[in-house]
Structures are given as C-alpha cells and as structure tokens.
C-alpha cells in the first residue's frame, strides 16, 4: 500500500472526519476536534496502523484508526461474516488485588461482584452518589484475590481516581498502562484464534483465562462489543504488534477501525458512553436493569449498599416513575437520523432525543437509539424525527437490531 504521504494525521483527519466519515458518532468528531491541538498518545500498534494505510483520528487522547483503505462498510460486513481485529489499547485496564477486593468493588456498583466465579466476566456500572452512570465497564475474576477491570478510554483517568478514592484503603488498585488490548470479533474469530492458541475454543461467552497466543502472554476473554462471537486479549504492550501481525496473517482476519466498531455496536443495541449513557443517566433510564443481579435488588441478600441505591432501586421497583427510557428506533423512509436529533409525537410535541444513529450496514436500513417519554417507549410506537426541518417517520423497536451471535 502507498505509505509515502507523511502528513500530520491530526489536522488531516479532523478536517476530513465530519464530512468524509458520516458513520462516526458526533461525540467522536467533537473529541477529535477538541484533541487536535493537544499532544496525542499512540497505542503500541500505531506504526502497524500507518503501514496498513489507516486513516488516523484523535480519539480519547490517542491517535486511532477510524478506517482502513477497504472502507467502513466493507470492514463492518467483514466482521459480521468472518473476523475483524480491533485495536482498543486506548481503553483503561487495572487490577484490584487483595482478599477484600471483590467486596470493596461491589460497594461502587449495583452488580454482583462477590458472587462472580473464578474465570468468569461480568458487565458493570460504576455509579455516582446520585445513582447515575460514571462509566460502564467489564470485570473478570482472575482468582487468587485478583479482579481485572476494563474501563472506557475517555473515562479511565477519572475512573481510576474515583476507585482509588473509594476503596484503595481496602485493596490494592493497580493501573496497567503498559498493557495493550486487542479485540478479535466475528463468527470466524474462534477459528482464527484457535490456530494460534489451541484450547480457546472451549471458552464460552464471558469466560476467560491465561493463554500463550503466538508466543505472547495473554489474558483472553470470550467477549467483545459488536454483538458477534469473539475475544478480547490483554497483553504486554511490547508483544502487541507481534500478536496483531500473527492474527492478521490468518485468512479470516482483517483490520477494523473505530468507524465500523461504532456501527457494529449500534446494530447490537450496545450503549456508547458519552452518547447513549453518561453522568446524567440512571441504569433504569438506560434500560440496563438486566445488568443488575437479583442479589443486589430490593429483597436480595446484598440489596443496596452502592452509590445512589435508593434512587436506583426505586426506579427498578417502580418503572412508571421513570422520566425517560432508552429505546431502539428504525427510520421508515430510509433517511439516516443522527444523534442529537429531536424526536416528536405525531402532533408535534417533543418527546425525546436521538443519542446514536446511522445507516445500518447489515440491515441496509437506518437505525438509531435514543430517549423518549415512557408513554412512547413500547415497541411498535410511531414517532417522528426532525431532520433539517422535515419530519422523518420512525418506529420504536426492540434491540438488538441484529441478533447477537454469542457462544453461550
């Protein structure tokens, strides 16, 4: 590929991104613009991205690949039918160490940490004292009194400070800045990875363990954020390029950028922090009650005991009290509807706002998610989005838009 053009990727990508990358969330574009003047960090795969011809953009303080020469749509569809490799090393990784680590971490989230078996992973919600979402994260019980945690890249500094301030007196909170993180996603991910690490095919969704993959020391979990089967691999940064090249050498695997990662997660009905959930959103408003196990709910053996518990549990127990609800939406006339678009009832009353929206490459139909008044949250409800002054008909629908393909 032509690698002769050595331009300032920050200035070039920020100028091009809003126009040339219509599938990117507005929050990514705004982050790129805000970060353009700041020194950018790079992931351990930066040189490889450039070698592969990636368009690089500032994201969460890093220079990251938004797409490769084949283009976003091709990357999206390849991940759905084969396997895509994502660099997600901008994410935050940390470890909680000590016999009280699980109990301490459980005081920060409305989920069951203590009861998570060794070798299992769980989705969690880090909450404020007002019961709103500071961040969403994944955590894995490594055994030997160690919990491995992955948080969103844009939130990692604040999350680390929050966790340290709240529980560092009960367990060691160890940041892992020298760890890289790769995600291999798609129905043929297991085929490709098993050639390099026999035995990973025995893992099931949200389980994991330590594996040597192409000679690299990895913590592998069967998880991801595309709705597809796949794996996330945490490993020392110094080994990341060797692993990435080994994975890309497999016939099923192609490199995938942030643009397709966004479209894949939206089709899967998964929230993007900063768009679909943020520090103003409660779990029930975000339709994330499924992530709160019974043991932490009213009447459970360890009910409450987390920040904002009274508000969070009251909303779970009385859903009619919710001021708004996250829903899925499909555009009925093929017109893409972007984030921050106003949603109205048929008689012109404002009822909500779109938080994510784009043409769904798998469905060949525009999809979105957003928040509406509870009276308009039932599947099948007709609403309208106001796009450039024109009412675009939409219908509330169940999520995910594309059925999940997890290996359970």
What can you see in these coordinates?
One of its GO terms (molecular function) is transaminase activity. It is an enzyme of class 2 (transferase). It comes from Verminephrobacter eiseniae (strain EF01-2). Substrate binds at residue 232. 23% of the residues lie in helices and 30% in strands. It has 408 residues and is α+β, with helices and mostly antiparallel strands. The chain has a domain at 9-87 and 189-205 and 237-267: Probable tRNA modification gtpase trme, domain 1 (Gyrase A, domain 2). The strands form 4 sheets. Strands 11-12-13-10-4-14 form a 6-stranded mixed sheet. The protein has a 6-stranded antiparallel β-barrel with strand order 15-18-17-16-19-20. A 5-stranded antiparallel sheet has the order 6-7-8-5-9. Strand 2 and strand 3 form a beta hairpin. Mean pLDDT is 92; it is low at 1-22.
Lay out the secondary structure.
Blueprint lengths: L8 H12 L5 H10 L5 E2 L3 H6 L3 E5 L2 E6 L4 H10 L1 E5 L4 E6 L3 H6 L14 E7 L5 E11 L2 E6 L4 H12 L4 E4 L3 E7 L3 H8 L11 E6 L2 E6 L8 E7 L3 H9 L4 E3 L2 H10 L41 H9 L7 E7 L10 E3 L5 E11 L4 E8 L9 E6 L2 E8 L11
Parallel strand pairs: 1-3, 4-14
Antiparallel strand pairs: 2-3, 4-10, 5-8, 5-9, 6-7, 7-8, 10-13, 11-12, 12-13, 15-18, 15-20, 16-17, 16-19, 17-18, 19-20
Kindly summarize this structure in a few lines.
With 408 residues, the protein is an alpha+beta fold.
Looking at the chains present, what oligomeric state does this protein adopt? single chain
Average per-residue pLDDT, rounded, comes to 92
Helix count? 10
Largest sheet: 6 strands, mixed
Indicate the radius of gyration in whole angstroms. 21 Å
Span between termini: 39 Å
Here the CATH topology of the domain at 9-87 and 189-205 and 237-267 equals Gyrase A, domain 2
The residue fraction in helices comes out at: 10-25%
Question: What is the architecture of the domain at 9-87 and 189-205 and 237-267 at the second tier of CATH?
Answer: 2-Layer Sandwich
Structural class: alpha+beta
Shape assignment: globular
- Please tally the β strands and state the result: 20
Strand order of the largest sheet: 11-12-13-10-4-14
Low-confidence runs of at least 5 consecutive residues: 1-22
In CATH, the homologous superfamily of the domain at 9-87 and 189-205 and 237-267 goes by the name Probable tRNA modification gtpase trme, domain 1
